[in-house]
Design brief:
Bound molecules: alpha-D-psicofuranose, manganese (II) ion
Number of helices: 15
Radius of gyration: 21 Å
Largest sheet: 5 strands, parallel
Shape: globular
Oligomer: single chain
Order of helices and strands: HEEEHEHHEHEEHEEHEHEHEHHHHHH
Strand order of the largest sheet: 6-8-10-11-12
Strand content: 5-15%
CATH superfamily: Divalent-metal-dependent TIM barrel enzymes
CATH architecture: Alpha-Beta Barrel
Number of strands: 12
Length: about 400
């Protein structure tokens, strides 16, 4: 793409216009590792502060109109908190996005939630699911995004097969409570906090459960939830092919689920994932794919890391869209490996930053959102205002 070629700019602008990404409320709160927490004076400690930070990211980037909410962290009083969230939506111009039930914090869930051997605890977990769906309806949120911490640590201590059945049943019941416009996204993760078996360990299990649950259930791919060197774009290709891709939790990782800034370790991987999605779309397979971020930073500034992630996602999405897919298909057909690879890699190496800057300018957005954030003094101001409170809060929320 030549920077001076206005036709190409027009195409690129259309692509950028179509891209939005959801930011997580928990990305603005204090967080840490299981060894400790490094508090930041600018961290949000209330739902209002999270909305304010989300609004700042949206002001700077223009592509983050929704914020994912985690039920116990953001809506601790359940539906009673909905009116406040609605007011905050209006005040800050950011809507509630996906609703994330929380089935991993209560003491009852030590041996599992929806897969707990105790019918009472399973019922409690199911009630929480239904309550989360009800809240999502009141907030007009489309996606209920389910991640389970369920699993076991020692072989022979749980019946994996019984637990599959319990899960199927719970997800079917949950699905039957969805409004027509809603979806149930099933997230998988191979380990942590359970280390012997996880009840929804991979995309195959998630896809099976989603299909059993009903037609509005899909799979959620968290890029951090894979073994090292796993081919995530192939998983994405399969989920697209089978119509089961629901969305992403984007982050990057070097080892386990370490929630690093998107593209910081392997931007080529995200490019390859986006390429699969663009291919499916251009082949006339419409998919509703929710792009979401799942990162909680404790070393980088939270707002800065979020803006950095959003800008990186836009660049990689655009690069992947600019692959000449027609030409690539021809080269693949001829098995011209080197030419195909060069064409593919060539798109990855293209510097799309000038066109993204031009698009921001055309939209009246700051041309360099990171620089604009620094110049705005927003982080310094909230650090002054929130400082002592933020240091005193020692939980995720
Ligand atoms: C679990 O590791 C997870 O990816 C789930 O999506 C949770 O909701 C989120 O992280 C919490 O940070
Ligand atoms: Mn996740």
């Amino acid at each position: 793409m030549k920077d001076s070629n206005s036709a190409n700019y027009e195409q690129a602008f259309k692509i950028l216009e179509a891209f939005q990404i959801e930011i997580p409320s928990w990305g603005f709160a204090n967080t840490g590792t299981r060894f400790g927490k490094f508090v930041q004076p600018a961290a949000a400690t209330t739902i209002e502060e999270k909305f304010a930070d989300a609004a700042e990211v949206n002001r700077l980037t223009g592509v983050t109109p929704t914020m994912a909410l985690h039920v116990l962290w953001d809506l601790p009083n359940g539906v009673k908190d909905v009116p406040e969230v609605k007011q905050l939506e209006k005040r800050y111009g950011v809507r509630a996005g996906s609703i994330n039930p929380n089935l991993f914090q209560e003491q009852d869930y030590k041996y599992g939630s929806l897969c707990n051997p105790s019918p009472e605890i399973r019922q409690r977990a199911l009630d929480h699911m239904l309550h989360s769906i009800a809240m999502a309806k009141q907030l007009e949120s489309r996606d209920i995004s389910l991640w389970l911490a369920d699993g076991s640590n020692y072989p022979g201590t749980q019946s994996m097969r019984k637990r599959i059945g319990w899960l199927e049943e719970a997800l079917q019941i949950s699905h039957s409570h969805l409004a027509p416009y809603q979806r149930l996204l099933v997230e998988y993760k191979p380990f942590e906090p359970a280390f012997y078996h996880t009840d929804i360990a991979d995309w195959g299990m998630a896809s099976h459960l989603a299909q059993q649950a009903g037609p509005k259930a899909r799979v959620l791919v968290d890029t951090g939830h894979h073994y090292s060197s796993q081919n995530i774009e192939q998983i994405v290709a399969w989920l697209l092919h089978t119509g089961m891709l629901g969305g992403f939790h984007f982050n990057d990782r070097r080892y386990a689920d370490d929630d690093l800034t998107l593209g910081s370790i392997d931007p080529y991987q995200i490019f390859r994932i986006f390429h699969e999605i663009h291919c499916a779309q251009s082949e006339g397979q419409p998919h509703t794919v929710a792009y979401m971020i799942d990162q909680s930073h404790n070393l980088k500034g939270k707002i800065e890391a979020t803006v950095q992630t959003v800008a990186t996602a836009q660049e990689l999405y655009l690069k992947a869209a600019l692959v000449d897919r027609k030409q690539l298909a021809g080269l693949q057909q001829e098995c011209d490996l080197v030419a195909a690879e060069e064409l593919f890699r060539g798109a990855f190496w293209r510097d799309v930053r000038p066109v993204v800057r031009a698009w921001r300018e055309a939209r009246g957005l700051p041309v360099d959102p990171l620089q604009a954030l620094r110049a705005s003094g927003y982080v310094e101001r909230i650090a002054r205002e929130r400082g002592s409170r933020s240091a005193a809060v020692s939980s995720y929320a």
